């Protein structure tokens, strides 16, 4: 269970670095999801609960990589053509041929088991076949082939008893295929994390309803629910909660039942109308973090009746960026998934930028091809943490580290595509 004790980074205190926040999550959170078995056709995108060990080698037997002729390398002349009688034929799925290999060739096809004693396969395009006066056929081989050519060795893909997939991996199509390749029919996976998603704020209106004075439509609940689902979570949409202490308290208490995590958006800054923090505090414990990032400084973490709680800021871009930075690893820990660092790519910036030292900044950019095949990042024109269309019109985020204070146009920067955090 989440144990987020001692708030040494209370509001007004120093900003907390993202690395420190993530280290804290790593040291205090464990997987809360039980293990279940699923068939392979239901395993995609699930988190493996146990290492997977291969019970057989792949391929199980030496076999031919091409259509051609299996020969013994030692029978081939290095200077002249070699002519060898064709004494057998073996296709994929046939039992291995067993006979004395000396001075002979076997007609063989891709995937067919190598006959015992033969070590090399001539591709059919590289040799000829001729008929002898007695009606038998022979293969004519030009010099130049290497020993062992076109032979695939048993176990060259997977060795029997080796670990092919590690616990904590979210299964990709090729992972499911590899389990099938070693003869498995299913996998031990974690049950999906059950996540309650809530928006808070008196100004929020449900899409589809008329918009009253001072109201805006709730966007974050939909963005965050979609992000959680992309991570394999089972979302319960708990709707919009008003900035009312009693209502918030009752709803959060209900949300704690039957969920592994509660995610809220809005109401975590300092305002008098921000009641989420108080409600969480009264139901468990709250630890408010001011992260040294931009956008997305205020984040609340805590427990509601023993269940982990993460309160993301209300500004839609800040909600997404804090999700990527903090909620994402938090969900991975709870779901039993290995926490993955997004891969950053080096791209050229076509903008100047000034920033404060000590803060990691995420700049919304779109990518386009530049000279010499390199990629150029163009900054979205508006910076506001409330401009959600900036995320729609961007391809990803340029990540400017804490120690950087200025970026000159043309400099190389680290770029995180949205596909890395989905
Ligand atoms: N005095 C201070 N004011 C603010 C600070 C601060 O440090 N001192 N921090 C600012 C920052 S940074 C952010 S981010 C926001 C975070 O505030 P809250 O999490 O309390 O969010 P709200 O005040 O509820 O809303 C902020 C903004 O976002 C809109 N919003 C909220 N929820 C949604 C939603 N579900 N869908 C779309 N838009 C939403 C809301 O209407 C506000 O405009 O606080 C700053 N203030
Ligand atoms: O979290 Mo706030 O968005 O930095 O404006």
From TrEMBL:
This protein's name: Molybdopterin molybdenumtransferase
InterPro entries tied to this protein: MoaB/Mog-like_dom_sf (IPR036425), MoaB/Mog_dom (IPR001453), MoCF_biosynth_CS (IPR008284), MoeA-like (IPR038987), MoeA_C_domain_IV (IPR005111), MoeA_C_domain_IV_sf (IPR036688), MoeA_linker/N (IPR005110), MoeA_linker/N_sf (IPR036135)
EC number(s) stated in the UniProt entry for this protein: 2.10.1.1
Cofactor: Mg(2+)
Pathway where it operates: Cofactor biosynthesis; molybdopterin biosynthesis
Matches recorded under Pfam families: MoCF_biosynth, MoeA_C, MoeA_N
Keywords: Magnesium, Metal-binding, Molybdenum, Molybdenum cofactor biosynthesis, Transferase
MoaB/Mog domain boundaries: 196-333
Reaction(s) this enzyme catalyzes, per UniProt: adenylyl-molybdopterin + molybdate = Mo-molybdopterin + AMP + H(+)
Family: Belongs to the MoeA family.
Enzyme class: transferase
Keyword Nucleotide-binding recorded: no
UniProt function note: Catalyzes the insertion of molybdate into adenylated molybdopterin with the concomitant release of AMP.
């Amino acid at each position: 269970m989440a144990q987020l004790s001692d708030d040494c980074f209370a509001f007004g205190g120093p900003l907390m670095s993202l690395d420190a926040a993530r280290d804290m999550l790593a040291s205090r959170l464990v997987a809360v999801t039980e293990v279940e078995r699923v068939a392979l056709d239901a395993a995609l995108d699930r988190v493996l609960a146990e290492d997977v060990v291969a019970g057989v080698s792949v391929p199980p037997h030496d076999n031919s990589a091409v259509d051609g002729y299996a020969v013994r390398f030692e029978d081939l002349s290095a200077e002249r053509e070699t002519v060898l009688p064709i004494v057998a034929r073996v296709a994929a799925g046939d039992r291995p041929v067993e006979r004395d290999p000396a001075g002979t060739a076997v007609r063989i096809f891709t995937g067919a088991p190598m006959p015992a004693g033969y070590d090399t396969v001539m591709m059919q395009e590289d040799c000829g076949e001729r008929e002898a006066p007695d009606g038998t056929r022979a293969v004519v081989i030009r010099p130049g082939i290497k020993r062992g050519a076109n032979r695939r060795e048993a176990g060259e893909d997977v060795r029997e008893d080796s670990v092919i997939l590690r616990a904590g991996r979210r299964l990709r199509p090729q992972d499911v295929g590899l389990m099938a390749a070693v003869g498995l029919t299913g996998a031990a996976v974690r049950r999906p994390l059950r996540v309650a998603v809530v928006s808070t704020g008196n100004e929020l209106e449900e899409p589809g309803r008329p918009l009253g004075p001072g109201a805006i439509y709730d966007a974050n609940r939909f963005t965050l629910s979609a992000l959680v689902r992309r991570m394999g979570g089972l979302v319960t949409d708990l709707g919009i909660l008003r900035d009312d202490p009693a209502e918030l308290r009752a709803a959060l208490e209900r949300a704690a039942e039957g969920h592994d995590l509660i995610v809220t958006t809005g109401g975590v800054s300092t305002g008098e109308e921000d009641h989420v923090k108080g409600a969480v505090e009264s139901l468990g414990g709250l630890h408010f973090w001011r992260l040294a990032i931009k956008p997305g400084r205020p984040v609340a973490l805590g427990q509601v009746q023993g269940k982990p709680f993460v309160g993301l800021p209300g500004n839609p871009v800040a909600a997404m960026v804090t999700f990527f930075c903090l909620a994402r690893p938090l969900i991975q820990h709870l779901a039993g998934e290995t926490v993955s660092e997004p891969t950053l790519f080096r791209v050229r910036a076509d903008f100047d930028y000034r920033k404060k030292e000590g803060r990691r900044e995420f700049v919304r950019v779109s990518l386009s091809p530049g000279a010499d095949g390199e990629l150029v990042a163009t900054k979205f024109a508006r910076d506001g943490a409330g401009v959600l269309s900036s995320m729609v019109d961007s391809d990803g985020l340029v990540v400017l580290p804490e120690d950087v204070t200025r970026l000159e146009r043309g400099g190389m920067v680290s770029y995180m595509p949205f596909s890395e955090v989905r």
